[in-house]
Amino acid sequence: MPVFEYRGLSATGKQVTGLLEADSSKSLRTQLRKADVFLTDVLGQSEARTGRKAVADRQVQLGRMFRGRVSTEDIAVITRQLSTLLHAGVTLVESLAALVDQTEKERLKRVLSDVKQRVNEGSSLADALGQHPKIFGNLYVNMVRAGEASGALDAVLARLADFTEGQARLKQKLIGTLIYPAIMTVIGGGILVMLMTVVVPKVTRIFETMRATLPWTTRLLIFVSNLLSNWWWLLLPLVVGSVSAALAWTRSPKGRPVFDAWVLKLPVAGSLLRMLLVSRFSRTLATLLKAGVPMLTAMDITKNVVTNTVLAGVVENARDAIREGESIAGPLKRSGQFPPLVHHMVAVGERTGQLEEMLLNVADSYETQVNVRLGALTALLEPLIIVAMGAIIAFVAFSILMPILQLNTTIR
Fold it and tell me: What pLDDT, in 10s, does the model give residues 376-397?
């Protein structure tokens, strides 16, 4: 059943707009009349006539995409609600209809309406979700498919909701950790640029009449100030172009592996990123295997979840080794990229038949370490940024005061 976007007038004469599911525009008018709304315009009539293609075209419109952006938290909420409804004995179509009614975001409402229509026409839920890969990823679709095949869709959806919520919490933790240092850096950089382009040139003009040799710190300060004041029009595009070129190189097929390998070797950030990716690998693989997804398919999906090409290559090699009859632990150990705890726990899990539980233990362990290190890193970054800003301001003040003190000594 299509979703119409309408504009109308309420009983008091106030203009109202909204979304409503109806068989046709005539049925839409009847429903609105019962709600004391006079229909003036059907904005979504083209969607109703062209069906699913119009829904897909509507999603890619820039304005609506930003206004109705679907977050990981939104997916976790509807997954949990769908699991609860199915566990309570509500049919799948009725459950999807309930999700359509309670969802407020326009884009998600349209997607769920399209999924419900496809399921009502005989499609499986996994195939219907697979038509919207930007919202429901490969991992999500394959877990739903495994749940449908096993007859335990509600349990799989509950497990998938737990996984999605955990990933959302970890993402929020990372963003919350980095946002304060980023704001401090931007503010400090702005203050420094203002000092060097506005304040310093006015103060250093008094040094032009001095015949004494200026300290090297003052000469450096004047040089940087003149460079920023007179050549900003060249420096700005040069910096932007350099950053853009560097980003393009890191995303290229040749530059991406080199950059990913370099990032993993960084002193603090490298070990933190490795633990984060290992945790994501372990939890994703365990979640897929618990849902009944075949091992080779699960390894393919997990490879795409591990965003670092070096570790993704290790996962791909492990998948090929499994296809040839080898265990998972062997390729992980030979690569040298996964910590010893991982391949030892995996080997124990394979021997005892508890691979999923061992992978979850690994994920829990590394997620705990990531949270602890992020907290310590945040506590360390704040004073370091303050000290760095203070040192820069002290350098500026020292460079300005030293010639003045020298001038006073000369006069005496």
Answer: 887 888 788 888 888 888 888 8
What count of other Cβ atoms lies within 10 Å of the Cβ of residue 386?
Answer: 12
Contact 170, 160 (CB under 8 A): no
- CB 112, CB 100: distance < 8 Å: yes
φ, ψ for residue 136 (rounded to 5)?
-110, 110
pLDDT of residue 32: 75
The 3-state secondary structure of 280-335, one letter per residue = HHHHHHHHHHHCCCCHHHHHHHHHHHCCCHHHHHHHHHHHHHHHCCCCCHHHHHHH
H, E, C per residue of 95-117: HHHHHHHHCCCHHHHHHHHHHHH
Q: In angstroms, rounded to a whole number, what is the distance separating the alpha carbons of residues 360 and 356?
A: 6
pLDDT of 48 above 50? no
Region of residue 69 (left: phi > 0; alpha: psi -120 to 50; beta: else): beta
Please determine, for residue 292, whether its predicted confidence score (pLDDT) is greater than 50.
yes
Q: What would the pLDDT profile of 2-41 be if each residue is shown by its tens digit?
A: 677 777 767 666 677 777 777 777 777 777 777 777 666 6
The secondary structure of residue 212, as a DSSP letter, is S
Quote the CA–CA distance of 241 and 247 in Å, as a whole number.
Answer: 10
Residues 93, 296: Cα–Cα separation, whole Å: 31
- 135-139: list long-range contacts, CB under 8 Å, 24+ apart: 135/70, 135/75, 135/108, 135/111, 136/75, 138/301, 138/304, 139/284, 139/287, 139/288, 139/301, 139/304, 139/305
pTM above 0.85, yes or no: no
Q: Above 70 in pLDDT, residue 342? A: yes
As given in the structure block, the two tokens for residue 161 are 């909701």
Q: Among the residues of 51-132, which ranges form H helices?
A: 52-59, 62-67, 72-87, 92-102, 106-120, 125-130
Rounded distance, CA 127 to CA 106, Å? 22
DSSP 70: P
CA dihedral 356, 361, 363, 367 (to 10 degrees): 160
In the prediction, which pLDDT does 121 show?
87
Residue 122: Cβ within 10 Å count: 7
Q: Residue 207 in contact with residue 403, Cβ under 8 Å?
A: yes
Cα separation, 41 vs 95, whole angstroms: 30
